[in-house]
Amino acid sequence: MAEETVVPAESVTAPKPAGNKKIKGGIILLAAIIIGGWLGLKMFISSKTHVETDNAFIEARIVPVSSKVAGTVARVLVRDNQLVKRGDLLLEIDRRDYQLQIAKAAAGVGMAENEQSSEQMKVEGARAAVQSAQARFEQALVDQGRAEKLYSRDVLPKEQLDRAITAGVVCKAQLKEAEEALKRAQAEAGLIVKSGSKAKILQRKAVLDEAELQLSYTKIFAVQDGYVTRKSVEEGVNIQAGQPLMALVPLHDTWITANYKERQITWLKPGQKVEFSVDAYPGKKFNGTVDSIMAGTGAAFSLLPPENATGNYVKVIQRVPVKISIDRDSDPERLLRIGMSVIPVVLTGRTSGEVLNDLNPFK
Q: 34 in a domain, yes or no?
């Protein structure tokens, strides 16, 4: 006969009510909804008080360096990525051709001065010829008057009177010719115009000044502080006037161009504080200030702006460039370089109450 197995009463547990599991699940779900809602509301408020974008880059003015004159490069005194100061000599062009031009221009000035002395002598000679012709003409008039008196007394024949009259006419013509020659000599010497006597000398001196100016262009200096980039010139290379030789990037004057969506700029205005991070320096924070907002979207100023009035229209959210000036105290080591990607966050200064008030449909 098989033995019966006796199970102790304390080893038998009563089944748990199913309602307890539902209550716990409901509590967990409710807690998740509350936490999720609170986090979502917090993120929504933060998106309105802290406007962020990842479409932003460091920019700066790129100053091109070129030559005003053509020639052969004699010396290059800088290297790639070198920091130069305003007034530093960057390169020098062979000066010998321009020194020769100065010598020619200086010789031209000397020749002009000599020509002026020679023309002055011509004027004096022409003036003496006028005085001589004037004396002959006056004497011819006296002789003509005497002949007329003698002819009236029948002392002088008619033939000699005619000769006296003809001599007066000839002397008058010679005087006129001498006066015209004097005017011509004065015009050539530049004496008719008040300041014309120095016209040729001034013209030659202007040529000399131009040659000296061209010589000064053979030395190219830095127009401002910056780093040398895009250097494309070496010693011995022939260059032309206006040819790009290198560029200077002043990293002390950089800024951020942040392309915010048009729905994000509602509360943006100049003067607001900005915090931004740079991909190249993770964990490091920089500061800045909203400087200005562009007068139009980026698409409006593109080479081929969209023609929304033609064809089928598909609305695309536009982006508006915002210029953000960088606080120099936050970048004392000049770590920022143009083209770097940044993530700026504009602190609009709005409170949570103001953001929530905008959601009130009954206001």
A: no
Residue 70 lies in a domain: yes
Which stretch of 11-20, 212-221, 353-362 has the lowest confidence by average pLDDT? 11-20
Query: Are 230 and 91 in the same domain?
Result: yes
CATH of the domain at 324: 2.40.30.170
The pLDDT of 4-24, averaged and rounded, is 60
Domains in the chain: how many in total?
3
Average pLDDT over residues 134-151: 84
In the chain, beta strands by DSSP E: 50-52, 56-60, 63-66, 71-76, 83-84, 89-93, 219-221, 226-229, 238-239, 244-249, 254-261, 273-278, 281-293, 319-326, 342-347
Q: DSSP string covering 266-335, please?
A: TT--TT-EEEEEETTEEEEEEEEEEEEE-SS-TGGGSSS---TTSS-------EEEEEEEEPGGG-TT--
pLDDT in tens, 247-283: 999 988 899 999 999 988 988 999 999 999 999 998 8
For residue 187, pLDDT over 80 is answered with no
As beta bridge partners, residue 219 has 92
Taking only the tens place, the pLDDT of each residue in 102-129 is 998 888 887 776 666 666 777 777 788 8
The secondary structure element, H or E, covering residue 184 is helix 158-189
In a domain, 83, yes or no: yes
DSSP assignment string, 58-84? EEE--EEEE-SS-EEEEEE---TT-EE
Same domain, residue pair 258 and 353: yes
Domain carrying residue 89: 63-95+223-249
Residue labelled with tokens 């009259």? 165
Considering the domain architecture, whether residues 124 and 186 belong to the same structural domain is answered as: yes
Q: Is the pTM of this model over 0.85?
A: no
- Check residue 8 and give its pLDDT: 53
Residue 42 lies in a domain: no
Supply the CATH number for residue 70's domain: 2.40.50.100
Q: Where does a domain end: 214, 238, 258?
A: 214
Residue 54: helix, strand or coil by DSSP? coil
